[in-house]
Design brief:
Blueprint lengths: L10 E9 L3 E9 L12 H5 L5 E6 L5 E5 L3 E7 L12 E7 L4 E6 L10 H5 L6 E5 L4 E6 L3 E5 L1
Antiparallel strand pairs: 1-2, 1-5, 2-3, 3-4, 5-9, 6-7, 6-10, 8-9
């Protein structure tokens, strides 16, 4: 049996990880061509919010694989693919204040039920450890809630 038959097809997505305490790490995440949650490609946010404790990163500078514990991931940054919010999405403008003093201003775009559509409601989603914010410079930043000191609207 050929080994290729056992491979799961994945697409590489260029990202910058901020790891505690290592710092900035540039590489690529492995994403599925089809998201298990929506009719599109898998997003880094989906990989980060799975129950698996580790993620796989292919380092660009050394062409090596590393398995990072998600609890050590402070944030992940990548270029916005311009999916844009749907008509039913009410953008939530805010600034994330991280424990290291970093400020991340931007917009959160997520479809939420009408009775749970406040910024407070989004931040308190229990099944998501990471939040996704669209920054004004065309980047997306996915932040570990454990490293957020506070959020201002």
């Amino acid at each position: 049996m050929r080994r290729d038959l056992l491979k799961i097809p994945k697409k590489l997505k260029q990202v910058t990880l901020w790891i505690h305490p290592e710092g900035r790490v540039v590489g690529s995440l492995f994403l599925r061509p089809q998201s298990p949650n929506a009719p599109r490609e898998e997003e880094p946010l989906e990989v980060l919010n799975t129950p698996d404790p580790f993620l796989v990163l292919r380092r660009d500078d050394r062409d090596e694989l590393r398995f990072y514990n998600k609890t050590a991931v402070v944030r992940v940054e990548y270029e916005d693919e311009a999916y844009g919010p749907g008509a039913e999405v009410q953008p939530l403008t805010c600034t994330l204040h991280l424990m290291d003093g970093s400020l991340i201003p931007g917009t959160i775009r997520k479809a939420l039920p009408p009775d749970r559509s406040r910024l407070f409601d989004y931040l308190n989603l229990h099944d998501e450890q990471f939040v996704k914010i669209h920054c004004d410079d065309g980047m997306v930043c996915v932040v570990n809630k454990s490293y957020i000191a506070c959020v201002t609207p």
